[in-house]
Amino acid sequence: MAVFRQHIDESHHDSINLLTQQMITILNPIMDNHESKFEHLARQVERIVRIVDYDEGDQNLQMNQEDMMNMPKNMGGHMHFERDTPRVVH
């Protein structure tokens, strides 16, 4: 009986290890993708903060010149947003 119990315990342990490995295989890419999207969103928010310098004291909006230079523009120098511009989708 003790041998049978040991066999069941080992089998249970092996099943738990297999399940753990399968969960890691499935969940790690999902978590990496989630983390990547969160980091991308954080970068976008930081860029918005740099572009729009909001001062609560006088509540004036000013454009940061460096970020204005990096915004997408057409041949005439006018800002535009094409389909290729990264956007956050909820």
Outline of the structure:
With 90 residues, the protein is mainly alpha-helical. The chain has helices spanning 2-51, 65-70, and strands at residues 52-54, 61-63. The chain has a domain at 42-81.
Distance between the termini: 57 Å
Low-confidence stretches: 57-61
Cα gyration radius (Å): 26 Å
Q: Percent of residues in helical segments?
A: 55-70%
Strand content: 5-15%
Shape: rod-shaped
Q: How do the helices and strands follow one another from N- to C-terminus?
A: HEEH
Question: What summary fits the major beta sheet?
Answer: 2 strands, antiparallel
Key phrases:
90 residues, mainly alpha, 2 strands, 7% strand, 2 helices, two-stranded antiparallel sheet
Give a description of the structure.
This protein has a domain at 42-81. Strands 1-2 form a two-stranded antiparallel sheet. The protein is rod-shaped. With 90 residues, the chain is mainly α. Mean pLDDT is 73; it is low at 57-61. The protein contains 2 helices and 2 strands. Strand 1 (52-54) and strand 2 form a beta hairpin.
